[in-house]
Amino acid sequence: MILSVAGLELSKRTAGLEAISRMIVVVIIVIILVIAGAAAYIALATSATTTTTPTASPTTSPTTSTVPTTATTAPTTQTTVTGTTSSTPPTTATTSTGATTTQTTATTTGTGPTLSTLTLDDINWPIGALNQLTSWEAIPFPNWFTDTVYQPLVNLNGYALQQTGSIQYTPGLAVNWTVDSTGTVYTFNLRQNVSFSGGHPFNAYSAWGDFYGLWYLTGNNTYWWLDYPIFNMNTSDFGPATLAMMKASGVVNPSAQLLATMENTSWPIYITGPNQIVFHLAHSFTYFLGTLVVFQGLIFDTQYVLDNGGFSTSTPQTGVAPTINTYFNTNVIPGTGPYMVAPNGVSPNEAFVKFVKNPGYWGDSLTPAQIQANEYLDPGHVQNVVIQLKTDDTARYIDLSTGAAQVATILDTNWPKILAAPNTYSYAKVPALSMLINGVAMNVLRYPTNITAVRNAIYYAVNYSQINKVAYGGSLSPWVGPEYPVWKQFYDLGGATPWPTNLTLAKQILINACKANAQACPQNFPVLDFRIQTGCTFCYNTATVIIANLQALNISADLEVTPISQYACVPNGVAGPCSFAQSASLNQTASQLTWLGAFTFAPGADTPADPWLGWVNGLTPANNWAVYSNPIVQKCDNEFTSGVSNATLLADCTAAQLQINKDTPYLWIGSLGLVDGSGSPAYNKNIIANGLLDAVYTGQSDTFIFNTITFTNGQ
């Protein structure tokens, strides 16, 4: 799953005001903070400081844009519960330069203590370990290194994204970029005098090696770019020979032979010099910049990889993807960001990671206005950061309440305590227009959910409002998939009504279907399998409501709470993590009902194509959880990356949406209001003022991007 975090009600801040605040008396600071609370900067629910508008203009970029009544606690071991008990997309790119640890408290200034160490408690250790070479698989997740250690060529205006849902691209490691008249050639001019934290220079040579190294690790797969088939890789000949050349030459100052390969314009990604890299797409794809923001778009030190065993340690075999070099699971590859992993900073027992400020960070010289234009570039406000794994909710709450942690993800067990203390705590909220959702897939290839009428009946029988109350505390917003609500231009093209609960209609659909086909009669159905992942309380509570709703149709279902090892593309696993072809072959063992993703679901890239290319795509390499395909829908899927006009795309995707509405392969549970479904990263609002979550609504990480966290004392 691509998990997610969300937008916060934000309140603007600039370093300019912080500088002033350090020069004036405490009383004036307090007055300013009160005034600032009227503005919005980050969805850190109620507190924030505000500053004046920057004098330097940010990058100009177009906008794209009878059931239970109380919640229960999900079991933590495998259990069986028996059913009977957008706006307009951009057309051009525009440019601009542009160990458990207690808090360390020094002197007090402003309205809170000065911290030298910021501690965050998280609920997950990264899937994929700490190895950035796994990024082509949309992991590590959570990736605590996003923007803090690794930075992309292009970023998003986090405030605009999380406050208004608008997509505004901003410079990252590229100072600017151009797009040719065909919409297929993107040329990026890179920042100069930037180094990785280990000392190697960042340049086009390293970036080129980064991207092709990841392609190699996929087994040179067409869908290597986060499942987007946007490059014609047939002209590229990158393999063991090229890697050997890179190893011998290095990428800091490549040999003439390697340089000639890097400059080969017949390859889809090539360089024109040390400070410029070009991406040549197979077809125009308006949303390409959105694919650069996270995952494989995060730049790492290729030379460090080459110096420490390379991308892979396996012997190349035809048709077999190389084995990723696991040295980097705990030996973190350097990045260009404001922080780096501290010496011996990775716990050997997956308990914590310690970070320290990168003394050579290129962004230390950014002006307050430049930081406000792209807050993901913020140099950070504490010298040290610790992110520690705490799997017990009460342990996390104790850390937060005692000051042992300043940020902690709080879930069902202790969430009422956060809500009961609004003068002490605030938390991350998801905006109404977001890309963070929950759903349930109905296996269209396994009986009886292979019968459209059965899926239709289930779709109408589900009491979505009751789910919202029981499982989410009323924080859900109604949603119609597959499109994410933030992409208004492509959202609900068929004009369907979300949460269409109608038990009378559901029963009549089954009666009519049963008359026509005995296989559609509930008395002939087996007990349905309903799978969720271990540890997800709101998933459990949602499933419990749905199972009760099914009983009203005389359909029985068993809830299988599944460990993560089986919530994967394995025998007797689930369909979602598999390719469509693999999922189809597993259709008789994959459950009839499956939670979409693990806990929550967010995109792998900021594009409207993301859900279409996964959930309803018969060619997808992953994420078609319902094993659903239809030629009308496939036409829309294909056209997202084939260069058709926007009018054609909208027309064909409208037809696709109408077909999906008829086929109902998914139950669209809702758009989330809290980051973790029934809870969120919470913080002490008397210490922390602001902070951003990642640029894909927690698709990349599940807690705050810690270099963007600011403090009430103005430090």
SSE layout and pairing:
Elements (H helix, E strand, L loop, with lengths): L8 E2 L4 H7 L4 H11 L4 E2 L36 E3 L22 E6 L2 E11 L28 E2 L1 E3 L1 H7 L4 E3 L2 E6 L5 E6 L13 H14 L22 H10 L6 H7 L6 E5 L2 E5 L17 E2 L2 H6 L31 E8 L5 E6 L10 H6 L10 E6 L3 H10 L4 E4 L4 H5 L5 E3 L9 E6 L9 H10 L2 H9 L30 H14 L11 E6 L3 H15 L5 E6 L17 H6 L7 E3 L13 H7 L15 H9 L6 H18 L2 E6 L8 E5 L3 E5 L12 E7 L4
Parallel strand pairs: 5-16, 5-17, 20-21, 20-22
Antiparallel strand pairs: 1-2, 3-21, 4-5, 6-13, 7-8, 9-10, 10-12, 11-12, 14-15, 15-16, 17-24, 18-24, 19-22, 19-23, 25-26
Helix pairs in contact: 11-13, 12-14, 17-18
The fourth-level CATH homologous superfamily of the largest domain is Periplasmic binding protein-like II
Name the beta content range: 15-25%
Mean pLDDT reading: 85
Largest sheet: 8 strands, mixed
For the record, the count of structural domains works out to 3
Give start-end ranges of low-pLDDT stretches: 1-109
Number of separate strands: 26
State the distance separating the first and last CA atoms: 37 Å
Rg estimate, integer Å? 25 Å
Helical proportion? 10-25%
CATH top level of the largest domain?
Answer: Alpha Beta
Q: Architecture of the largest domain in CATH?
A: 3-Layer(aba) Sandwich
Structural class: alpha+beta
Count of DSSP-assigned helices: 18
Q: Tell me, what's the shape?
A: globular
CATH topology of the largest domain: D-Maltodextrin-Binding Protein, domain 2
